[in-house]
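Milestone 3.1: sequence recovery, worked example.
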């Protein structure tokens, strides 16, 4: 009985985490398309061979879609959505690194120390994606079989 209650509590925490991450992504995606568009343009690495605005708009649309998927995906698809969200966070990480390397101010990150301190948080977003969707647990379960 106690184990079942603990599992239910863990499921509630994962659900809150998953929906919360979905809300964060949907908000960030909306900000890409509206009020923070210029700030996000500052994060597009100079070596990306696409128009900065196109990259910002495209990533905003992807963030809105991922945020929505995290919040509403049926249980059988949540692990896949978690892996896609984690891959997205890995894919945009070079933009964060570029902001540090090019000393670009955006989002209040106006010193190299602040820009550098931000970098490890991307790993937290990857972990949040995998944990809250059960993707990591599902992968570990498959490996054990």
């Amino acid at each position: 009985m106690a184990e079942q209650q603990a599992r239910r509590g863990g499921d509630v925490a994962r659900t809150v985490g998953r929906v919360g991450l979905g809300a964060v992504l949907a908000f960030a995606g909306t900000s890409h398309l509206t009020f923070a568009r210029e700030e996000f343009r500052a994060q597009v690495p100079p070596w990306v061979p696409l128009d900065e605005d196109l990259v910002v708009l495209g990533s905003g649309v992807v963030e809105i879609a991922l945020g929505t998927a995290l919040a509403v995906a049926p249980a059988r698809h949540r692990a896949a959505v978690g892996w896609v969200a984690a891959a997205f966070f890995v894919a945009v990480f070079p933009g964060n690194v570029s902001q540090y390397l090019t000393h670009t101010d955006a989002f209040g990150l106006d010193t190299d120390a602040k820009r550098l301190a931000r970098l490890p948080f991307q790993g937290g977003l990857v972990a949040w994606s995998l944990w809250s969707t059960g993707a990591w647990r599902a992968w570990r379960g498959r490996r054990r079989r």
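The radius of gyration is 17 Å. Residues 96 and 119 are 7 Å apart (CA to CA).
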